[in-house]
Amino acid sequence: MRNEFAKVLTELAEKDPSVVLLMGDIGNKLFDEFRGKFPDRFYNCGVAEANMMSVASGLALNGFRPFVYSITPFITTRCLEQIRVGVCYHEAPVTVVGTGSGLSYTDLGPTHHSCEDIAFLRALPGMTVYAPADSLELRSCAKLILAENRPAYMRIGKKGEPRLHEIEPVLKKGEPVFLNPGKNAQVCLISTGTIGGVAKQISEELQKKGTSCAWASLPNIKPMSVDAIKKLAQTFSLIVTLEEHSRIGGMGSAMAELFVDENIRGTRLLRFGTQDWFLHETGNQNYARLRYGLTSEKIIPEILQALSSRNVD
Amino acid sequence: MSQIESLQQIARELRWRIILNSHRTQTPHLGSCLSCVDILVALYWNVLKIDAQNPTDSNRDRFILSKGHAAPALFQVLGMKEFYPEKDLEKFGQDGSMFGEHPPTPGHLPGIEAATGSLGHGFPMAAGMALAGKIKKQNYSTFALLSDGECNEGSTWEAALFATAKKLPRMTVIIDYNKWQATGRSDEVLELKPLAEKWKAFGWNTKEIDGHNYAALLESLKDGSQSAQPTAIIAHTVKGKGVSFMEDDNNWHYRTPNEEELSKAEIELGIKR
How far is CA A211 from CA A76, A149, A162, in A? Predict the structure, then answer.
């Protein structure tokens, strides 16, 4: 996904002279093409994220559209104050881009995991939040962000994420994009970001077991479309959220807030995300998903259980 | 009256307005405001190229009050310079007013470049503004006024490293080095000495001056406004400058003057109400 980010940003910078890329000394050679084409719009700001974020605000207040890139925890929670004050309070059109989000960097340890970033950033007034599931969604998100002129946060993966879309999806603000409409399905799986591949697997395996399961990706978490979610709730009796982020404050939480605020009744919401503890053991991304219960083996029985208890009701 | 005498006269008037406002509205940070009055007067009356009638002109000089708690001083300056009617300042501190203890965001008050108050933000934002000018090949100058307490913040030093690495032109920081921060002597809270040497070591064109001496202020600020290399002006100042019983007394970081103190200040400043 990060390669796609470098590629799409280079394309966007060709068309828009206000696009500037600031990065925090990561991504060796990743941005060589961008840097080669636009040497005066590329800045390695070093391992100094607080300064980098404020510099981005200063640029944005003077006509530029800075994209600020580093590993997710360092470009979000490390410099949260700078995002809150310089970016959001000033309504500066800065795009914060976190790479290796969720459990993408499991093998680097919890210093590099990011399962709280959505919670922190979506609480900031005026911030918009995006979590593309694959390269094509990332492309759509980047265009949507540039078409708007406001603070944005985009959490992306690293590399090797499965391609989920066949063509670039047309994103509408805060609306889910259906990847499997699920014929006569009672259950709809909503995934956001890097865990899309697991959602796909769950949807397919349920189908094999004779349970139709719709699946949609929700790349624009904030603002979430109230109408689109209400429509989902009218169509399905069970909505299952899935994300590589804490159950506290993530996309599932945002969905739950919307359910309460809109007084949505009769539709059960089941939320899957990481738990309230750090993973101390090392391993790969699939190991971390296993530990946090974010695999199809763990989730499918819970979905079936929820469906059967609904049918008993 | 010489140029310097006239600036000193403006500074006396400005100090009086700040003190009177502090008394009327119970606004703190008086000592911090008074220590940077001469720096503000030198900048706004002699150095900055900003048209109060066209305060968002893209070629204007940028001034960022990184020590945002001195906003009560900046608000009076901008009023005197007619960025807005001076009578607007009568609303200071009232519900719904834009005049509070720290500057609002730029769209809410003419002449404000950044909403500061959280220390260590304004200077890096100013660095971004200087970079914007460099990319667009504009010739404006960028100034950030920092407190010595603000040099506690790591982001200040991150920005210091950034500015020299990216060769930001016409970028000047002024450190209002009054030797006090909120609750103690700045060198005792966190060791700043030797402050000028620190900035020099970070690659800045560094000047150490008396921050109440107009000749030194004008020379160093003008030099900074034209320098290809980032310039740091270590301005040695006195907290509470201008009123004897406030000078170098850190109680005036939070205290506000009563009627009697107001009268004494008025006499000392030679104000005729």
Answer: 39, 43, 24
pLDDT surpassing 70 at residue B33: yes
Residue with structure tokens 């499997």? A180
The answer to whether residues A98 and A76 touch, using CB atoms and an 8 Å cutoff, is: yes
Which residues from chain A sit within 8 angstroms of residue B100, using beta carbons? none
The alpha carbon of residue A59 is apart from the nearest alpha carbon of chain B, in Å, by 5
Chain B residues with CB under 8 Å of a chain A CB are 58, 105-107, 113-115, 118, 120-121, 124-133, 135-136, 154-155, 158-159, 161-162, 165-166
Report the SS3 class of residue A152: strand
In terms of DSSP H, where are the helices of chain A?
2-15, 32-37, 49-60, 72-75, 80-82, 117-122, 135-147, 196-208, 226-235, 251-261, 285-291, 296-312
The single residue listed with the structure tokens 């509205």 is: B25
B74 to each of A194, A237, A305, B175, how far by Cα in Å?
48, 59, 64, 16
Segment A177-195 shows an average pLDDT of 96
How is B121-138 classified by DSSP, letter by letter?
SHHHHHHHHHHHHHHTT-
- Residues A113-129 have a mean pLDDT of 98
Question: What number is the average pLDDT over the span A182-211?
Answer: 96
pLDDT of residue B272: 76
Please list, in sequence order, all residues whose beta carbon lies within 8 angstroms of the beta carbon of residue B142, skipping any fewer than 6 positions away.
B61, B62, B63, B64, B126, B127, B129, B130, B133, B168, B170, B171, B172
Which candidate, B265, B228, B271, places its Cα nearest to that of B243?
B265
pLDDT single digits (tens) B119-147: 999 999 999 999 999 999 999 999 999 99
Structure confidence by residue, pLDDT tens digits, B204-228: 999 999 999 999 999 999 999 999 9
Q: Are B236 and B176 in contact (CB under 8 A)?
A: no
ipTM for the complex shown: 0.96
Q: How many residue contacts between A and B have a Cβ separation below 8 Å?
A: 98
CB spacing of B114 vs A61 below 8 angstroms: yes
Contact in structure between A209 and A159 (CB atoms under 8 Å): no
Written in H, E and C, the secondary structure of A249-287 is CCHHHHHHHHHHHCCCCCCEEEEEEECCCCCCCCCCHHH
Distances (CA, A) of A286 to A108, A244, A301: 14, 11, 19
Model confidence at A311, in pLDDT bands (50, 70, 90)?
Answer: low
Q: Which two tokens stand for residue B141?
A: 């100058």
Which of B114, B115, B131 lies nearest to residue A55, judging by beta carbons?
B131
Torsion over CA of A78, A83, A84 and A85, rounded to 10 degrees?
A: 110
